[in-house]
Amino acid sequence: MVNAGTASSPQPKLVAREVSVFYGEKQAVFDVDLDIMPREVTAFIGPSGCGKSTLLRCFNRMNDLIENCRITGSMLLDGGDIAGSDVDVVQLRTRIGMVFQKPNPFPKSVYDNVAYGPRLHGVAPTRSELDELVETSLRRAGIWDEVKDRIDQPGTSLSGGQQQRLCIARAIAIRPDVLLMDEPCSALDPIATATIEELIDELKSEYTIIIVTHNMQQAARVSQRTAFLNLGRLIEFDETQKIFTNPSEPSTQDYITGRFG
Amino acid sequence: MSSSVPTTISSQAAANRLLLRRKRAERRFQLYGILAISAAVGFLVVFLASIVSRGYMGFVQTEVRLTINFEQELVEAGSYRKILRTSLAELFPEAGSSRAERRALAGLVSAGTVFVLRETVEADPAIAGTVRDVWVLASDPVDQFHKGRIDASLPEEERPISDASLARIAALEQDGRIALRFNRSFFSRGDSRNPEEAGILGAIVGSALALVVTLVVSFPIGVMTAVYLEAFAPRNRITRLIEININNLAAVPSIVFGLLGLAVFLNVFGLPRSAPISGGLVLSLMTLPTIIISSRAAIRAVPPSFAEAAIGLGASRVQAIFHHVLPVAAPGTLTGAIIGMAQALGETAPLLMMGMVAFVVEVPGGFTDPSTVLPAQVYLWADSPERGFAEKTAAAIIVLLGFLLVMNGLAVYLRRKFEKQW
Amino acid sequence: MLLSYLPLLIIALFGVGAFYASRARISAAPQRALPGLPGHYGWYGTLWTVVPAALVYAVWTIIDDQVIRNIVLSDFPELSGAAATLLYVSIENAAAGVMTDDVPMASVELLLNLENLSAAARFALVTAVSVLGFFWGWRRIRPELTARDRVETALLVALFIASIIAILTTVGIVLSLVVETFRFFQLVSPFEFFFGLEWSPQIALRDDQVAASGAFGAVPVFAGTLLITVIAMLVAGPIGLMSAIYLAEYAHPRVRAVIKPLLEILAGIPTVVYGFFAALVLAPSMRNLGVDLGLTISSESALAAGLIMGIMIIPFVSSLSDDIMTAVPMSLREGSYGLGATASETIKRVILPAATPGIVGGFMLAISRAIGETMIVVMAAGLAANLTANPFEAVTTVTVQIATLLVGDHEFDSEKTMAAFALGLTLFFVTLALNVVALRVVQKYSERYE
Q1: Residue B1 pLDDT
Q2: One domain, residues B178 and B205
Q3: C412 confidence band (pLDDT: 50, 70, 90)
């Protein structure tokens, strides 16, 4: 596992250079440089309000939805620009999917939740292809066995952990390259959290995953690399094992040993 | 597992086409939104512009300067009709003394001119026996022609003004005897059958009287209800019944309130028809829900800590509410009352039932006098065939909208001024 | 005149006096911890002085007209019903100084005497009750009296009575409508009213021929209401909904802050002004347009009334829809955008379906508003009850018929006036049902996202 990071291809999947984010006058993220490696799990940790979620949401331009939010610096996906104003965010978001803090299934059936993305993008045009895609996605999210009998019931009727896995199934149904996960377990109980963590571990064989978490054990368990952010600045970015055993920055040390945060 | 993932879109070109189509749909959808808003706002603009363009001329009135010979003996005999006739004949000596010609001459000025002359003399008896220039109102056709609302190029039988009269108007214009002046009588008189003499003072006073009744009845009752429901009412079925009733009353069509007023206030209680007291009572029942709902919101917006602090210091609940909560909620309550009054001012339908849509010449002097209200005056004039009433109607609408603008502006101002985040 | 308001003045003066007298009495009493402020004792005295006297005044005022009327008319035992009313009105007019022919002068004199007597008696009684009430309260003012409790209880009772007025209003509406409607249905069968296809209540063949005074089949009236409402909703539905969507989802907050109140102005314009516009501006130009296009558009077409009514109810649709859409949680929007949906796809596939119950509620409220609207249709729609679906023709509506049947001087108790109440009852129940259901739907919806 430790070797996975170092042995992966030298070509980073996502690159951020001097990324700063402003909410109106207030700067939330300061000059972050970051390389995200493919088919790895990268964790963003840091105290609340440190800008880790804001940074995450830059990668698929979710910050565009927020009034007065402005981003500077450059961000690249496979060498192509994703930060410019001429970038097609609709296309970008099909390549960089997202799972949110609180499970947010649409008030539709389980089936329609998963089929939502494919229908938009014209993937799987026939009914049987779509059926198959829905099933595959639910299987990949490890929830098929639990919902196959109530595929026509509303997604909101599932339990919290199931809802979150449904949202993951929904995200992977459009086969993105990258999955962004914004504290995906913070609203879940420990058992559901364990299931999701297992799932993340499986998914990294196909997807590049960035996960924001304030749970350091979780970061240690699921990620290969960890970025520690504090007050909007990237303090340290290294292999997870190194960050948790031998961080080079004293403030990282303070944070992971629980002296603040 | 990955083997079961179905094939991706066959070609990049197809994907691009789909994307283009989605983008176009997006733009189209946004356009629908903009069109919808433009339609609504555009209508508002056209609507206001058309009212103003029709109505602004209602605030001025064509007047004619006549040289009147107040012959002593005619004044004493009270034959002002003859005084006027003689003066007009002197002005247009070419007109014969036939009955038709005399009528045509008299038709140049308002039918009320005779009374104006009488009033002039009564106000200043020294005028008797002298020759004076007097500005009198022009008749409706002359007024409309002078304002350019009658097309002189039409054949004579298709317009309300004869060729001979046109020539006389031209002569008057040449002498500087005809002019547009501010229409004072519009604001100083009641209704009239003659458009040039009709005014809205009666309707304004009627509206004011009815609103006084409405305010005096609905404001205290509304605030008391709101205080009861927010601060004292136990959570039980009666309270729920009251709340449901208030919500439903807010949505009852106004004309149904008119039926209630007719059946109960007029027929059972025997209140006078067409009187501000009866109309005002119906309006107060209508505005009650508005006042209750906004007062409740205002009371609810006061943090409970205010009352709790007072109770902690040994005040009773009643004292806490009346000394510490109500004063803070007062501006909100007042705002609700103003909005309720604005609604009541614009209401016509229930007053139809109460007989307040009536031809009333006298300006009402009390709550039981027959009177009409401003929107009812608009309704009455809109139904009148004379051309002059069209612009009077629009002018009355402008006055009505002006009052509403002031009231709503006041409400917004109060809300802004006292809006506080606790 | 003076004598009728004098008792009120007396009550007010006595009330003020009682306050100070009672307060002074408790202040003079041996001081110790009182169960109330001196002011409470003052109010206690005022309440005993004012309330019973005011009640006596009110009761007397309400019943004395009826009593006097019975006494005056007892001289004419042969008259009853409308004839008696007519006679009494002319006696009253004569007493007020308006001379009419054939008024029995003896009765006029009797009326005047009785009125004076009644006013004097009322004055004496009210004054006496007020004084008695004052002394009753005065005797009880002792330091042991729990004055604060008593006064506050009285206040709460007053608040409760005020809030009962809402219920009384509803009861009044229902009773007055039901009573008249019941009488109407004794003359015209409900079956004819609800299913009859002929409506011409104004054409009475002969004055005394009550049952033949016209046809009371209300279907054309209901159909006209429906036609105009449908036209109005065809205007207000799309425009209101699309405006709400744009304001809630696309518009910059500053644009929204300007446009939203602008749209709400539409709901604040008095309906009589819309009626003027529909009847005197829109209808003539539509008729001219029709002539140009070779269409026959009636000058009182359903279309003109419906269009303007549609404009009027745009804010009812847009405001509620806007509120409802803004209440859809942001997380659903993010979920959809995160999957690469465009804004319109998010709106159409996620937000609108989620907000549907609320939007339906808004539409129902708007429909109820349209059905109950009176002035626009009175001025712009017709009186003729045509059973047609052609929007270019004139139709009539429930509210128009109520207004025209009841406006003007005609005797009450005729079938026409009762028919108006039957229409009113129908209108009341239809709008009530729409509102109750709409509020339920909206409430259910808002619970879901709390």
Answers
A1: 37
A2: no
A3: low
What pLDDT does residue A112 have? 93
**Nearest one of A227, A169, A173 to A199, comparing CA atoms:** A169
Q: Which residues of C touch B289 (CB under 8 A)?
A: 166
Contact between C221 and C397 (Cβ < 8 Å): yes
Lowest mean pLDDT among B291-295, C185-189, C210-214, C268-272: C210-214
Statement: residue C346 has pLDDT above 90? yes
Give the contacts of A118 (CB within 8 A, at least 6 positions apart): A124, A130, A133, A134, A173, A174
- The 3-state DSSP class for residue C155 equals helix
Q: Token pair of B338, please?
A: 């103003």
- The answer to whether C339 contacts A93, with C-beta atoms less than 8 Å apart, is yes
Taking only the tens place, the pLDDT of each residue in C362-407 is 899 899 999 999 999 988 887 777 777 778 888 888 998 888 888 7
CB spacing of C339 vs A106 below 8 angstroms: no
Which residues are C394's β-sheet partners?
Answer: C301
Q: Among C6, C74, C417, C406, which residue's Cα sits nearest to residue C216?
A: C417
Smallest CA–CA distance, residue B416 to chain A, in Å, is 24
Share of chain C above pLDDT 90, in %: 20
Q: Name every residue whose Cβ is closer than 8 Å to that of residue A27 and which is 6 or more positions away in sequence.
A: A20, A21, A232
CB A202 within 8 A of CB A232: no
**Of the residues B182, B210, B225, which one is the last residue of a structural domain?**
B182
- Which of A130, A136, A207 to mutate: most B Cβ within 10 Å? A136
Which CATH number fits the domain A2-103+179-256, given the four candidates 3.40.50.300, 3.40.50.720, 3.40.50.970, 1.10.10.10?
Answer: 3.40.50.300
Compute the distance between CA of residue C106 and CA of residue C191 in angstroms, rounded to an integer: 50
Between chain B and chain C, how many beta carbons pairs sit less than 8 Å apart?
Answer: 242
Task: Give the A:C interface size as CB pairs under 8 Å.
Answer: 66
Buried b (16+ CB within 10 A) or exposed e, C221-249: bbbbbebbbbbbbebbbbbbbbbbbbbbb
Closest Cα partner for A4 from A227, A177, A213, A225?
Answer: A225
Angle between helices C302-327 and C352-372 (to 10 degrees): 140
Residue from A58, A60, A65, A137 to probe the interface with C (highest C Cβ count within 10 Å):
A65
CB–CB of A136 and B4 under 8 A?
Answer: yes
> From B28, which residue of chain C is nearest by alpha-carbon distance?
C344
Question: Which one of A123, A129, A206 has the shortest CB-CB distance to B2?
Answer: A206
The two tokens of residue C271 are 């309906």
Within 8 A of A171 by CB-CB distance, chain C residues are 338-339
| Opening angle at CA C328, ends C327 and C330, nearest 5 | 105
Average of per-residue pLDDT across B192-219: 90
Residue showing tokens 């339920």: C440
Which chain B residues touch A206 with a CB distance below 8 Å? 2
The answer to whether the CB atoms of C173 and B37 lie below 8 A apart is no
For domain C215-448, give the CATH superfamily: MetI-like (1.10.3720.10)
Model confidence at B5, pLDDT cuts 50, 70, 90, reads: very low
Share of chain A above pLDDT 70, in %: 96
**Residue B18: inside a domain:** no
What is the rounded average pLDDT of the residues B162-187? 83
